[in-house]
Design goal:
By secondary structure, the protein is α/β, with parallel strands linked by helices. The chain has a single domain, classed as Vaccinia Virus protein VP39 (Rossmann fold, 3-Layer(aba) Sandwich), CATH 3.40.50. Helices cover 37% and strands 17% of the residues. The chain contains ten helices and nine strands. The protein has a seven-stranded mixed sheet, sandwiched between helices. Helix 5 links the parallel strand 2 and strand 3. The longest helix is centred in the last third of the chain and has 16 residues. It binds S-adenosylmethionine.
């Protein structure tokens, strides 16, 4: 008698392995080298993160596309982290090449397991007492539980990184962790993809809704709105596409106050290179209460 075995559900480990794959490292390295900040990102960052000397935190920095561009624009206190070691390694190499290492700290950390009491702002002192290492492996990092003096003045989780965390419970853990590291009044800027922005998307999600009702969806997926596909550059991508109500509820449940959201095309026209790199998306701005 044969029994059918369901494939394992997509997990953070799946996503991390996919991001560490060579195709993904090449894809994001090209983006860091050739694209830099999108026009929409630059507009929003200059508006909501106006102080270049304020300590900023970038979650899911990848190969450093955003962080490196910010440092080149004159931002001097950026902490950027990612859980994919291969991307991070490339980001560090770019920072060394561009002589930006004094402005950026790249850390290895999982957004769903941020130690809110870890003193990221006081990291240099902590690193010194950890044997003078220049990197802080925040995955499993619990040696320092000092208070977070003041917190970050702004938090970024751009280009859908938050939505590449499988499981709503884990996305909420990330939002909660980032909230714990932000100072009162700090803005959080992130993006999502809408499920119904284009006719092809609408058709896809109508069909998916039927499959989920029938229980015939891809068994590796966790929630309605999940997608797992192979991108043009041959690397695997997990992404959750939320609806607006879901994000509003997640922000409220994790301490963030929703301030504003808008589609990218209404913020700034993007070059063809940016549009080829990333489909249309929605920007969200939330804030930690004073
Ligand atoms: C679409 S890429 C964007 C990379 C970079 N921010 C950019 O705009 O080019 C999403 C990034 O989020 C990171 N990421 C996803 N889940 C994460 C997690 N749980 N903790 C830390 N980083 C994560 C991935 O490794 C990847 O680098």
């Amino acid at each position: 008698m044969s029994t059918s075995v369901s494939p394992p559900k997509i997990s953070g480990a799946t996503v991390r392995a996919d991001f560490n794959a060579v195709e993904s490292v090449l894809h994001y390295s090209r983006a860091a080298e050739r694209l830099g900040l999108w026009a929409s990102e630059r507009t929003l960052i200059e508006k909501h993160f106006p102080d270049p000397k304020a300590p900023l935190l970038e979650a899911g920095c990848g190969t450093g596309r955003v962080t490196l561009a910010l440092a080149e624009l004159g931002y001097t206190k950026i902490t950027a982290f990612d859980f994919a070691e291969e991307l991070l390694e490339q980001a560090r190499a770019f920072a060394r090449e561009k002589k930006l290492t004094r402005r950026i700290r790249f850390l290895h950390a999982d957004a769903t397991e941020l130690p809110t009491s870890c003193n990221l702002l006081g990291y240099i002192a902590a690193a010194a007492s950890l044997g003078g290492k220049s990197t802080c492996n925040l995955i499993g990092y619990n040696a320092r539980r000092a208070t977070n003096a003041g917190g970050f003045a702004g938090v970024l989780f751009l280009f859908n990184g938050l939505m590449q965390i499988p499981g709503r419970i884990h996305r909420r853990a990330a939002l909660r962790g980032l909230h714990g590291l932000a100072r009162p009044g700090a803005p959080l800027l992130f993006t999502t993809h809408d499920r119904d922005d284009e006719p092809a998307e609408r058709r896809h999600w109508k069909r998916q809704a039927e499959l989920w009702v029938e229980g015939k969806q891809d068994p590796a997926l966790l929630e309605f709105g999940d997608r797992y596909f192979v991108d043009d550059d041959s690397y695997r991508v997990f992404m959750h596409l939320p609806d607006r109500a879901e994000i509003l509820a997640d922000l409220a449940a994790t301490g963030w106050t929703h301030e504003w959201d808008e589609m990218r095309r209404r913020i700034a026209p993007e070059s063809k290179a940016v549009r080829d790199f990333s489909d249309e998306c929605r920007f969200w701005l939330a804030r930690k209460g004073e």
